[in-house]
Amino acid sequence: MLTRAARNVLKTCPPRRGMAYVAEFKPPTLNDLPVPQGSWRDTYNQRQRKYNLQLVGGLLFTGGTLAFAKESGLIFFGYGPEISSKE
Questions:
Q1: Which has the least CB within 10 A, 6, 47, 58, 78?
Q2: Which InterPro entries does UniProt cross-reference here (predicted)?
Q3: CB-hemisphere CA count at 13 Å for 85?
Q4: What is the dihedral sign for C-alpha 56, 62, 65, 71?
Q5: Residue 70 to residue 79: CA distance in whole angstroms
Q6: CA neighbours within 13 Å on the CB side: how many for 69?
Q7: What is the pLDDT of residues 16-69, one digit of tens each?
Q8: How close are the terminal C-alpha atoms of the chain, in Å?
Q9: Which CA distances in Å does 74 have to 21, 40, 66?
């Protein structure tokens, strides 16, 4: 019964707003964005050099890891049955 009364009280209360009114709000414009400086091509080339080095490093690491795992016998890639010489 107490929960029913509390539910009725909560229904009659107006919802609270969790925000405040800002009186001096200035909407952002395109003039507020930073202006690019320098050559875009130089920046692009520097980033691509870095990304390409990361790509090559990742490929080398992955290839080295797979080669090590194959040679150490940790992974069998399922090329076919292992052929052993019968003596």
A1: 78
A2: Deltameth_res_prag01
A3: 1
A4: negative
A5: 12
A6: 10
A7: 767 777 788 888 999 999 998 999 999 999 999 999 999 999 999 999 999 999
A8: 90
A9: 64, 47, 10
Alpha helices in the chain (DSSP H): 2-12, 40-72
Least Cα distance to 48 among 56, 37, 36 occurs for 56
What does the block give as tokens for 56? 């090559």
Cα–Cα distances in angstroms (integers) from residue 59 to residues 4, 45, 51, in the given order? 65, 21, 12
